[in-house]
Amino acid sequence: MNISIRNIYLISKYATNICRFLLAAMFIFSGFVKAVDPLGFFYKLGDYTQAFGMADWMPSFLLMFLAIALSAIEFVVGAYLLFGIRRRIATYSALLLMVCMTPLTLYLAIANPVHDCGCFGDAWVLTNWQTFGKNVILLLMTILVFWRRRLIIPFFSRKSAWLVSMFTIIYVLFLSFYCLKNLPILDFRPYKVGTNILQAMEIPEDGTMPTINDFWITELETGEDITYNILEDEGYTFLLVAHRIEQADDEHIDLINELYDYAADNDYGFYALTSSSEQEIEEWRDWTGADYPFGIVDDTELKTVIRSNPGLLLIKNGTIMGKWSNDNIPTEYHLTGRLEEIPMGQLQEINKFHVVGWAFVWYFLPLSLILLAETIWLRRKTKTERF
After folding, report:
1. All residues at 6 or more sequence positions from 54 whose CB lies less than 8 Å from its CB, including other chains
2. Which residues contact residue 97 at a Cβ distance below 8 angstroms, ignoring those fewer than 6 apart?
3. What is each CA distance from 75 to 46, 107, 150, 330, 363, in whole angstroms?
4. Rounded to the nearest 5 degrees, what angle is found at the Cα of 44, between the Cα atoms of 105 and 82?
5. 311-316: strand order across its sheet
6. Which one of 33, 170, 262, 359 is CB 3.0 to 4.6 Å from 123, fit for a cystine?
């Protein structure tokens, strides 16, 4: 009888901790991919407000706050489950999230007001029914972990749990604000650096949709389609992307105008791409003194191209050579010669594994040091008590 009870206890303990680790991985991954692209999650929340008729009264600053806060909560809950700290807070929070999200995703699967829930950002796109099925499984796991939370094995003591907790919160918030000010450190969208837009627009042999299918540029002045004129140009072309020009940040407009002068002096192309109306474009020109030509592109597509308003692309023969946020517009210190001769004109492709590796190191290395210091302190304390 005792052996049977012990076996049940061990099975319950192992099952609880296996589920705890799986939940931790899902929450951390979900929170991380949203944190590296807070503007993308902001756009997704905007889609929800449109679908549920809340867009007219939901202020954008509140949506941005929710985008950053929700990604941080997911990441922190996942970290708590992973390290076995704040077990009560972690399990209650995980259960609350899953109890809220599972019925919501069922509604999305049935009504389909938003074709992608955005649970994993652009890193892993699931259908609404796939998302609902995933959430049902996670909900069952969460109920088990919540019920048997006392069996969760902690990796840190209560004395150091607060330090791990504070570091985790600071880390994920810093990551979100860094990527918001700059650009996502990981780009999961079709317009990543190194992508050849022309090739991505080609229809695959199996007849499926191309990777990029809605990137069409209409010249404002003539109304002509100039997409291929720009993408087939063997020289360099700057694309200033402002999905809504009336909402664009004009803090660095002098740098943008200087960049246009640099492009004109060196016979490089320069176009501003927006989805705004002609009146709004004229108001922008009057306000900023912009002399560069404008092209009209679909609003959603421009949001996908770059997570900045405005943002800058450099393309050559259809290939994206580099991307810069509004706060990182190249200056005269970067433009020291022709693009063919300076680093800025070379492909700025980023190794995803390198970025993930550094993100992993910057998070887990300090925590490893905390764990090491705690282990040494406990050993010394044990030796002192023996004597």
Report:
1. 48
2. 73, 74, 77
3. 21, 25, 22, 33, 12
4. 65
5. 218-219, 294-296, 269-274, 236-241, 311-316, 319-324
6. 33
Domain covering 197-345: architecture: 3-Layer(aba) Sandwich (3.40)
* Residue 173 exposure: Cα atoms within 13 Å on the Cβ side: 10
Amino acid at 205: E
Instruction: Identify the burial level of 306 via C-beta atoms within 10 angstroms of its C-beta, where 0-12 means exposed, 13-18 middle and 19 or more buried.
Output: buried
> Once rounded to an integer, what is the mean pLDDT over residues 17-29?
96
CA–CA separation, 140 vs 205, rounded Å?
42
DSSP for 257-283 reads: HHHHHHHHHTT-EEEEEE-S-HHHHHH
Query: What's the rounded mean pLDDT across residues 329-353?
Result: 89
Nearest to 263 by CA among 242, 284, 239, 281: 239
Structural domain spans, the chain: 2-185+357-386, 197-345
Contact 154, 374 (CB under 8 A): no
Provide the residue type at 121 as one letter.
G
CA atoms within 13 A on the CB side of 77: 27
Whether pLDDT at 202 is above 50: yes
Residue-level pLDDT at 377: 74
Amino acid letter, 131 = T
Confidence of residue 351 (pLDDT cuts 50, 70, 90): confident
In DSSP terms, 196 is beta-bridged to 319
Cα distance between residue 123 and residue 101, in whole Å: 19
Q: Are strands 269-274 and 236-241 parallel, antiparallel or unpaired?
A: parallel
**CB-based contacts of 120-126 (< 8 A; 24+ apart in sequence):** 120/29, 120/30, 120/33, 121/33, 121/34, 121/36, 121/37, 121/40, 121/41, 121/44, 121/188, 122/33, 122/37, 122/40, 122/188, 122/189, 123/29, 123/33, 123/186, 123/188, 124/33
Above pLDDT 70, what percent of the chain? 97
pLDDT in tens, 87-144: 999 999 999 999 999 999 999 999 988 888 888 988 888 899 999 999 999 999 999 9
Contact 266/338 with Cβ under 8 angstroms?
A: yes
| Residue (of 351, 348, 273, 341) closest to 310 by Cα position | 273
In this structure, are residues 35 and 123 in contact, taking their beta carbons and an 8 Å threshold?
no
Dist CA 105 CA 171 (whole Å): 29
- pTM of the predicted protein model: 0.91
